[in-house]
Design a protein that fits this description.
The protein is built from 19 helices and 12 strands. Helix 9 crosses helix 11, helix 15 runs antiparallel to helix 18 and helix 16 packs across helix 18. The structure holds glutamic acid (GLU). Glutamic acid binds next to loops.
Amino acid sequence: MIVTRFAPSPTGYLHIGGLRTALYSYLWARKNGGKFLLRIEDTDEARNSVEAAQAIIEAFKWVGMEHDGEILYQSRRREIYTRYIEQLLEEGKAYRCYMSKEELESIREAQKAAKERPRYPGTYRDFTGTPPAGIEPVIRIKAPTEGHIRVDDGIKGSIDFPVADMLDDFIIARADGSPTYNFVVAIDDALMGVTDVIRGDDHLSNTPKQIVVYNALGFKVPKFFHVAMINNPEGKKLSKRDGATDVMAYDTMGYLPEALLNFLVRLGWSHGDQEIFSREEMLTLFDPNHINNSSSSFNQEKLDWLNAHYIKNMPNVELAHRLVPFGVDLKGHDKIEMILDLLKERAKTMVHLKALIDELLIAPRVYDETAAQKALKGDAIEVLKAFRTRLAASTALHLPSDYHVLMEATIGELGVGFGKIGMPLRVALLGAMTGPAIDAVMAVLGIESTLARIDSFIAWQATH
Ligand code: GLU
């Protein structure tokens, strides 16, 4: 069975890089009928793990991604780690190191001066004498002293890390007894039964150390997938300065979760040149072995394009439902279909769609002066009034084409061009020269509201 996990350090929110590796882990587990677990790496007690977990769960809920089983908190597993530290000490695979900070520092300085890699020289590795007084020891693991540590990575291939270049007997427990990062990660992944670790390649250099821990404890080493970072368009690591990195900020900005997930799945993975992936397609097609081995670039236009795509293609009933949290309640409006058909084609985000709906449904409180001046050139107001008379005498107008016929009849009678009625109507109904097709606007508003808006405009222009 494939078991994957997402193991965020609690930063208070879920960032989009994290959501991407979580998505990859989720898809890979679900595709294989496996498990997707969640672990909060909250050993830094200054941070509030409960809030962080909530933020992550909220984001998972928003995108419709569920983890399996209980959430694991590293802060609650200290006893487990202590037990393994003791086991390694008993087995002679770890040892107490009494080197003072000052001594270690001076060794490092000397190594640097000799252009050597700073490393712990193994002073207490086989120490049998009497420990120096007054020093609380740290615990170091016996790492291999030569050869290579091989990481079989599903994305980067096999990488041999020469021990001489990057390993020493690293600390697994500090002087106060607290276990260190790479030690607990390896233990947790092993005890959780994680088979496939999918994470950012900023962790690649930790992997050899974690493998040392796996080996010392006789745990099976999982398969690793180190995913290249998401960069900003300038090729630098994505940061807060590049816009929102908090996943939930995308909700606030009016991005649909399906658009964001589609965007993220493609950032670093592809299937031919396909751009649009439904959840089902992601589940069928995603394979971490096909993740690109190069960093991807955050492309705002692509995200906007995908978002517009998902808004445009969403059934109106669903779209109306999703608009509610944005303060748009179309329930009970008899023209829902018409309104959304008219506007969703143009919306970039849900926030934008709300603005478009408001523009349409809320009568203009001000009129764009320049547009009004342009629209009212010559005898346009008379044309508008003639249209008004015709409209007031009409019944049973439903479709945009019904209103269009009325507009044609008006200009036909007066022998003027279409602009003479189109432009003043547009300003009267929408307050500006922009907006959707004016016959469709009238079909949405209906006869009464259209008349009311025309009357307000006629009254306004009379005083200008
Ligand atoms: N806690 C680490 C992070 O948030 C991830 C550790 C891992 O995936 O192994 O970057």
